[in-house]
Amino acid sequence: MSGSKKPGRLVVVSNRVALPQQTATGGLASAMRVAMRERGGLWFGWSGKIGTDSTKVHRTKDGSIDYATIDLTRTDHDEFYAGFANRALWPLLHYRPDLVDYQRDHLDGYLRVNALFADHLVELLKPDDVIWVHDYHLIPLAARLRERGVKNRIGFFLHTPLPAAGLLIGLPQHRALFETLASYDLIGLHTARDLRALEEYFLHEIGGAMRPGGRIRAANGRSFRAGVFPISIETALVAQTAREAAELEEITQLRDSLQDRALIIGVDRLDYSKGLPERFRAYAHLLERASALHRQITFLQIAPPSRGSVPEYRQIRRELERLAGHINGKYAAPDWVPIRYVNQSFPHRLLTGYYRTARVALITPLRDGMNLVAKEYVACQDPKNPGVLVLSRFAGAADELTEALLVNPADPAEVANALERALKMPLRERRQRWRAMMEVLEEHDITAWCQSFLQRLTS
Ligand SMILES: O=P(O)(O)OC[C@H]1O[C@H](O[C@H]2O[C@H](CO)[C@@H](O)[C@H](O)[C@H]2O)[C@H](O)[C@@H](O)[C@@H]1O
Ligand SMILES: O=c1ccn([C@@H]2O[C@H](COP(=O)(O)OP(=O)(O)O)[C@@H](O)[C@H]2O)c(=O)[nH]1
């Protein structure tokens, strides 16, 4: 697209859509809501509802964003979302082949819903629209659109990690699925490791070839580009919201309830990829080892339930209830509860105040595409007295937030050591580390992310 030509309308397509007035507890929805607000355009996806008619498109508008959503039938929801996307692809992409439950009818449902999305989209598209498809739910969407004659630029962003080819090939029918990525013009990933995995897969499993300018040519002759685009947050606004949130009644209540104890915070969807049982065990390890810290600290874990129709998610919920009960039973005193475990989601504004109140954020996923909570925590700190981020080296965010205390989440002793170090860290070191991370987030915010992807897609 030439520099002087007005860019075409942006059409974002994702399974999860952040509809107006909804709390968006996932990173994709919260990030794309901000990106869409700035640029405007059409956002197409699932309404979040199960209905009997998926042929009807619901339209609504919020400022410059036009929303078009469809309900999913019970069968489509179970096979596409709860089935193939979240019981086969999600564990595979998060390095958990042991949890992959591949079922042929789930794959059929996944392909059917992708075709359904394509059927709806062709009715909504204009010739100069720039289409940006998001995440593992919609890998074959560009191929289905191309079959229907769509010639527009189509980009794809994968919000999860991408594991090495050796793992990807364990998925039955992997080639038929992943080869369709070649129908996109540009594929975005969070980290260099994810990009290497994509290249390796196409070169060694699909029989593709690298072309000048980082292009990858697939076996069918189509070529596409791929690049690293780490997603981010609206840094300045998040920081401002946190400053203002300090005055909210809920934040005062939290502060009063702490009685000068240092707050450690974790905020994660209740997902096995987030390493919550390992985190609870690491905290217990610290309590066991450092009795001087008893009554001095409080760990608040916010964990809104997620994907409750998938059995592994119900199981992790039971496991955490048991662990939290066990740890509190063992270490609590009449006037102190070591873990506050809350299965509820909170509006973003309130979260920013919680982050600012916390001396430490304990964010230890076993694998995570990015982890926006880590970035939000940093942006919310008081520059004069910032808290410390303890972060899993397996979150995409660790590639940029190198001044966090980086840990292997599977090692309770290592996490407990980092936690203790964070709690005792002198102000000077806290400030140095925070400043370095904040500079990264100020330069690479969500606007920069969105612009860099779309500029590459349209150039
Ligand atoms: O839509 P749900 O099934 O309720 O799940 C919520 C979202 O979870 C995942 O989020 C990812 O995207 C974030 C932003 O890029 C990233 O920081 C995080 O590491 C990822 O886990 C999922 O990829 C989304 O599709 C879901 O909407
Ligand atoms: O109660 C909650 C819990 C989480 N979030 C938001 O949900 C997003 C989670 O994104 P992240 O990338 O950390 O993980 P994901 O859930 O997408 O895997 C962040 O913007 C959080 O602020 C929220 O608004 N309320």
In short:
This is Trehalose-6-phosphate synthase. With 459 residues, the chain is of the alpha/beta class.
Structural features:
459 residues, alpha/beta, Rossmann fold, 2 domains, ten-stranded mixed beta sheet, binds the ligand O=P(O)(O)OC[C@H]1O[C@H](O[C@H]2O[C@H](CO)[C@@H](O)[C@H](O)[C@H]2O)[C@H](O)[C@@H](O)[C@@H]1O, binds uridine-5'-diphosphate, Trehalose_OtsA
What is the terminal-to-terminal distance? 6 Å
Under CATH, the homologous superfamily of the largest domain reads: Glycogen Phosphorylase B
- Count of individual helical segments: 16
Describe the main β-sheet briefly.
10 strands, mixed
Counting copies of identical and different chains, the oligomeric state is single chain
Overall 3D shape? globular
- What is the CATH class name of the largest domain? Alpha Beta
Write down the overall mean pLDDT. Answer: 96
**Strand order across the biggest sheet?**
3-4-2-1-5-6-7-10-9-8
Radius of gyration: 22 Å
Helix content: 40-55%
- What is the count of distinct domains? 2
Low-confidence stretches: none
Question: How much beta, percentage-wise?
Answer: 15-25%
User: The CATH topology of the largest domain is what?
Assistant: Rossmann fold
The total strand number stands at 16
Helices and strands: which structural class? alpha/beta
